[in-house]
Specification:
Blueprint: E1 2-13, H1 17-20, E2 39-42, E3 51-54, E4 57-64, E5 72-76, H2 80-86, E6 89-97
Parallel strand pairs: 1-5, 2-4
Antiparallel strand pairs: 1-6, 2-5, 3-4, 3-6
């Protein structure tokens, strides 16, 4: 395992068409349904199953970002209003790559 601490932009998303586009089906890139408090989307360079710690909370990489957002991390929320309330933050993130 490799651990890196990086300063990154952290955003939030829901599984709806408003965040994931018109063809959204509510399924992560790894084929599973996302779970609030567990699912985070990350760059394609970070393997599925890797851990990402944000504000002391650990998430599992289960989804992918659009290529133009590869330098970010995107936390899953069930409700769009909660994702929107989370906003956009720049902060330290610990990445534990399996």
């Amino acid at each position: 395992m490799t651990t890196n601490i990086v300063t990154a932009i952290v955003t939030a998303y829901c599984a709806g068409k408003c965040c994931c586009g018109p063809s959204a089906k509510g399924i992560c890139a790894n084929g599973q349904r996302p779970t609030q408090g567990i699912t985070i989307a990350a760059s394609r360079t970070i393997k599925f199953g890797s851990l990402v710690e944000v504000d002391g909370r650990r998430y599992i990489v289960q989804d992918r970002l659009a290529k133009r957002y590869d330098s970010r991390f995107d936390i899953y929320f069930t409700k769009h209003s909660d994702a929107k309330k989370f906003g956009i933050k720049t902060q330290q993130v610990k990445v534990i790559i399996k």
